[in-house]
Here is the input.
Amino acid sequence: MTSLRYTLLLVIITCSAYVFFSSFNVFIPNDIIFSLGFSSTNLIGAITYPFLHISLAHLIGNMALLLALGLVVESKLNWKDYYAIYFISAVFAGVLFVLLTKNIFLAGASAAIGGLLIPACLIDFRKTIAYIVLFFVASTLLLYPISYAISTYYDYSKQTGTQLQEAFNKTLEQKAQVYDNISALDDKFNRGEIDISVYNQTKQDLTEQIQNLTVHEQTVSEQLNRTTAVVSNIEEGKEREEASKPSFFAHIVGSFAGLGYLVIFRRDIVWNSGYQVSRLERWLKKRLTRSTKPD
Here is the structure.
């Protein structure tokens, strides 16, 4: 039974990076994507971009594929080969993609994961396809409640933000009214219309109202800022998600980088792949034979 320890380590690191860089929000902010993503203006991103994802859907899809391939490749690859293929594929595909594409930021682990695709197919083609289909269906089903939760959270945050803005405005109006009352009190006192003891007591009461309203204003302001940040984060992330397109070129390059590694360092897997093809042919022939038998 495959342990998945190499794969799970990558999944844990990548998911933790998403949580950390998003600061426990729904999406990673654009400034983080631009500072750690890979582009011609940010070469250090060649190392960091596989740990960035533009959305939860992007993250879940990639991690599901990684788990599917990990179940196959960990049966034959040691940790050195596994991580070498993963990161060499990421860097090679990223560099080639950036050289041929301008004004694009690359983010996501798909190119690195693509490096494991051909090795997985060579090791056990049928299991690879079966696991990919299984994890694809599972991740797709998982995305529906996540998408609903994000949409609900967004609507709730917008509604809460509207209510907090109204409460903030009302507090400002109340403070302005109290300041007007203090000014009117001072005028009456200066005209000698009220006694000093009444003046002092009334002004103390009004000053306490100002202090209480100021504390309330700060509390509401902090809550409003947090809620506004949540709404902005989701709107920014959704806009980025809709504008982003998968790079099939980077995926293909990453896959062939993985194959190149096997050809150079693990020829035994390449030579034994013929057995997998033969098994597939025999399996298909058996299925076809069964399907053509008369009832």
User: Anything to note?
Assistant: The chain is about 80% helix and 0% strand.
